[in-house]
């Protein structure tokens, strides 16, 4: 199994410092945050991309995923979303995603890669059918470029957003029916909405292109914790990962730990080692 760590826990440091830290701990992959203060595409000219590529190679660190979920550079955690009432805001999200596709392809030397995306956004007063149509239209504006550059876009279900349950995601993926659109399977998110992460892995296996993991407290409140500090059943989860013969990347995502990112990454790495053997 391939274990990576997301730079979005390292928001108090530079992207380059985050990569050095993650490599030093022993992870073999890194997920890049496609937003400020890290790999926001407008801040990634060709010379910086080349330096990041060299840095990854020096550490023998692979790109596990590019996380384009947030857009703090233009809004907040969720906004602008794919489902805004203002078409100009939707276009900001589309343009950001297209820029992330180009950046990811450049960083990864045009080899296959994945980008995780928000699952539409908060519904608010928007009718669900309208929101789903807007989301689909936005993704279809990005998928041709993704296919051209060998990038898989991934819907990441999240509690409280347009798509939060596994069946909602698989139904949507089946409807869009595009080879470059898959699921980012965030196990903690499914636990939050009352699903069994191990069962989701088995049921959704054909749709999964990447796995996010974090622990969640017994309350199922959406708060990312270091694996082992919550209530999730890790032996069952890793048994399911083996049962479905998953060979892709597993990225630990602990964005709330920005003031203790390195310590959180170290603790997660140590806790997960027995499950990886």
Notes on the structure:
This protein has one domain (2-276): Alpha-Beta Barrel (TIM Barrel), CATH 3.20.20.150. Helix content is 43%, strand content 15%. It contains nine helices and eight strands. It has helices spanning 15-25, 46-59, 87-107, 128-148, 166-176, 187-192, 197-204, 234-243, 261-276; strands spanning 2-6, 29-33, 62-67, 113-117, 151-155, 181-186, 208-213, 249-252. It has an eight-stranded parallel barrel, surrounded by five helices. The protein is globular, with a radius of gyration of 17 Å. The model has no long low-confidence stretch (mean pLDDT 98).
Annotate the secondary structure layout:
Layout: E1 2-6, H1 15-25, E2 29-33, H2 46-59, E3 62-67, H3 87-107, E4 113-117, H4 128-148, E5 151-155, H5 166-176, E6 181-186, H6 187-192, H7 197-204, E7 208-213, H8 234-243, E8 249-252, H9 261-276
Parallel strand pairs: 1-2, 1-8, 2-3, 3-4, 4-5, 5-6, 6-7, 7-8
Helix pairs in contact: 1-2, 1-9, 3-4, 7-8
Strand portion, in percent? 15-25%
Order of helices and strands: EHEHEHEHEHEHHEHEH
The CATH class: Alpha Beta
Approximate helicity band:
40-55%
Instruction: Report the count of strand segments.
Output: 8
Q: Which spans of ≥5 residues are poorly predicted at pLDDT below 50? A: none
* Structural shape: globular
Q: Determine the CATH superfamily.
A: Divalent-metal-dependent TIM barrel enzymes
Rounded to the nearest angstrom, the distance between the terminal CA atoms is 8 Å
